[in-house]
Specification:
The chain is α/β, with parallel strands linked by helices. The chain folds into 2 domains: 119 residues, 3-Layer(aba) Sandwich (Rossmann fold), CATH 3.40.50.720; 168 residues, Rossmann fold (3-Layer(aba) Sandwich). Helix 5 packs across helix 6.
């Protein structure tokens, strides 16, 4: 078994990995080429990797012994994965990833930044004192908040905002009965963008739903959060929307923002830190990676 790069597992989990393998090799840096990935895998039959490394068909074709790939990172769909899952499946290689291990930190980030925005705490990205969003400090109570994507993360953000008194509407691929029971109303995307003062996109990587029409519907004096791993928008209409001066965007990572040139703008708030990478998240990640391995070996 080989770990291609730093896996971000807790020390006890790294030690437990030894029980699954005759030989365990863990690398402490990320490979920089396909050749290096192939050399690291060698004749290993199991591979572990983090979000830092892309395991492509080209690499896998040169590693005929691989039978198991453990993604020590999120797996939402084959299209958004950093492993060529379709090719791996064609070779009967088992690919396992994890989900829902860093959502708690993301929820805390949204609440923290929203409170700072509404109350006017701290400074803007260009170093000026932040003014309350509405001119006068206000609470989350009564805020109209729209969630785009009501999966695990989006649902947790919605619940947290609802706890603080926000009015929740959402858009998803289908209406969710459990959300209706909580009082959350399903809206078509255009309507959700129009009626809400705050919109949060909680989408899978490489999922883009906000185009020119959607930003036209969103309009001015709006708060936009993106908690995904990549931009939820087309770049040109997004940047045009930002230039109105009455809108503000929040992203934790540069990957979620999409354009480094936007950093420093007074209405662009990007921490350049993954808020899901917490002490507790690494524990949950480790537990799920080990659980995937345990389930795989029980079937062998």
């Amino acid at each position: 078994m080989v770990g291609l790069d730093p896996l971000e597992l807790i020390p006890s989990a790294n030690k437990e990995l030894e029980s699954f393998a005759e030989t365990l090799i863990l690398h402490t840096d990320a490979p920089t080429s396909v050749d290096e990935i192939v050399n690291r895998i060698g004749d290993a039959d199991a591979v572990l990797l983090s979000h830092r490394t892309n395991l492509t068909r080209e690499a896998l074709e040169r590693c005929p012994n691989v039978k198991y790939i453990g993604m020590c990172c999120s797996l939402y769909s084959p299209e958004s994965a950093n492993v060529d899952i379709n090719y791996a499946n064609s070779r009967n290689i088992t690919v396992k990833g994890v989900r829902d291990y860093g959502d708690e930190g993301v929820v805390e980030y949204v609440i923290s930044e929203l409170v700072r925005c509404l109350h006017g705490f701290g400074t803007t990205p260009d170093g000026k004192p932040r003014k309350p969003w509405s001119g006068t400090p206000r609470e989350i109570t009564g805020l109209k908040a729209g969630i785009v994507g009501l999966g695990k993360s989006g649902g947790m953000v919605a619940d947290a905002l609802h706890f603080f008194g926000a009015n929740i509407t959402y858009f998803a691929r289908s209406e969710k009965p459990e959300a209706k029971e909580k009082g959350y109303k399903f809206l078509p995307l255009d309507e959700l963008l129009e009626v809400n003062e705050m919109v949060i996109t909680c989408l899978n990587k490489n999922t883009v739903l906000l185009h020119e029409n959607e930003f036209s519907k969103l309009g001015n004096h709006k708060i936009l959060f993106n908690t995904g791993l990549s931009p939820a928008w087309d770049a040109e209409p997004f940047e045009k929307w930002l230039e109105t001066g009455n809108n503000v965007v929040y992203c934790d990572t540069l990957g979620a923002l999409g354009n480094k040139q936007l950093l420093g703008k007074p209405n662009v708030n990007c921490l350049e830190v993954s808020t899901g990478r917490t002490q507790q998240a690494f524990v949950r990640l480790s537990e799920k990676v080990l659980a995937n391995l345990t389930a795989y070996f029980k079937k062998q």
